Records
---
Amino acid sequence: MVRALVLLLAQLAGTPIVSETVETGERQLIDLGTFECRDITRSTVLQRVCYDRARQDLVVAADGAYDRYCGVTADTVERLLGAPSMGQFFNQNIRRKTASSRYACRA
């Protein structure tokens, strides 16, 4: 048992750490290595929410596509995650169609 554990740890130590990269609707590749991601199961609109607190970057998988939003405060993300209807909160407060360029990312 101990020998199997030692072998497993040795294999893991030799395995390179690869972070996940996603492509947004704007054809931009985002490395999620610094993001905290949560799979969402209680929303029909949102499938995944990833947030980089230090950069205030939000990456959301909504309706099957990823989009990036910049300058999103941690408070806004907490309100999104705690909203009774996450999809409704997202659509009314964050999504570009309704929030205009409020969370637009500069190139």
---
Amino acid sequence: MANDRNRMEEEPEIIYIPDDEGNEEEFEVIMKFEVDGSDSKYMMVVPLDSEDDDSDEVYAFRYEEDGDDLKLYMIEDDEEWEIVEETFNTLVAELDGGNEHE
């Protein structure tokens, strides 16, 4: 039941990811999902302080939760990336289709 309540909250989930120089950048988590037939979990994030509001820059990471710790992994395998991209696009299409007339 707690998961349902978390999804209903207006507060966005914010994570901090260090860049190449060690500066932490803020990202909003826009979606988390698992891929069918896999134990891997993925999240899609967008930069919070994007200078271009029209930018559709979305980053995908494989992640693992260890208590309160969140470990992010870059997706470097082309096959894995295609699966993640396809799953994300399917979920977005379902959300768009389900919320159009609200």
---
Amino acid sequence: MQELTAGRLRRGLTDPLLPVAAVALLALSAAALDAAVLSWASIGVLAGFSLSGSV
């Protein structure tokens, strides 16, 4: 079994996959509920996150 080091843990916690997936799910559910403002806000978060260089 591999040992969990601080660097490996930090990389796992800062991986952009989890927040992007969570916000994408929020955007889809807001669109399904006809919550236009929340839907556009979620899409804006995704765009800002991708433009920030974090992805």
---
Amino acid sequence: MTDAAELRERTRELLAAHPPATTDRTDFLQARFDAGLAWVHYPAGLGGLDAPRSLQAVVDTELEAAGAPDNDPRRIGIGLGMAAPTILAFGTEEQKRRFLRPLWVGEEVWCQLFSEPGAGSDLAALGTRAVRDGDDGDWVVDGQKVWTSSAHLARWAILIARTDPDAPKHRGITYFICDMTDPGVEVRPLRQITGEAEFNEVFLTGVRIPDAHRLGAVGDGWKVAQTTLMNERVSIGGMRLPREGGMIGPVARTWRERPELRTHDLRQRLLTLWVEAEVARLTGERLRQQLVAGQPGPEGSGMKLAFARLNQEISGLEVELRGEEGLLYDEWTMRRPELVDFTGRDAGYRYLRSKGNSIEGGTSEVLLNIVAERVLGLPTEPRNDKDVAWKDLTR
């Protein structure tokens, strides 16, 4: 089994053969992937070495000390956090070799075509249709998706569509990889309360997807999607942060630097939120250690819940702390950003953008049900549509 000493040696060999100071960034990242040092717990030949996931920190520490470039993970977060683990779990060998390398290097950006205007919280009610053109032919997809981050940048999308309207809603879904450059794919910006169009709506009209781009068996799309969703919640709520990382950092800095803004009430609220943010950070560390041994579980839903609540409460406190300054807003020009930058903008942006945290990646109401049923073991909510054919559901 690969150990820490071997990984350090492999990393130093990579740095010697491809000095970061003189090597093109993309060339370096490709060489890192080929050396198995991209995600060390992945299989050999797919960017990894079948090593324990916990040893990734050994590689990252060596590369950071040498000034090596990273793959800009915030820009390609959907690919890294959602598409990659799903492809690894359900993809064919050909799919893994085709998609994982350019995904990790950042040559190809991914987006997620799941939510629809009539299927957000109740995702299994989705109505986008995929119809087979002949027994062995392409799939023809028609429908609409919404709240699609990075669709304006993406080359590929992970897509779920209904392939059997006669089956109950959870059973008639199939999972695909969609080429966003294909004819029939139209991306329209959705301008948010922040003034930006970070999200999009996507219209699919007669889009042809080869069967070779199907992930998992026909009709097993809900099962495949659960892997995506669990990884999504871990990637959103369980990101690695230093102490006072994330939203609590700017508030703590303002408190230290602006003593004239302090009040007793604000102090008590800040102390409470600081402790809760630190507890959430440490819980995330524990969750990542648990992931070393297997697949993500419903605990990620709890982390996502805490992430949304804390971001909204902390950003509200920051606006109050800054008083009139907190009502200022830096820029309202319509933009289509490549990533969400919570800490690089002003307090007004953080306050407005955090409102979406309890919606994106699964609403807080849905996640509360997941935690109740799958973590706490409470009785499930009654569902009278579980065995009803999708085509017979009231819409």
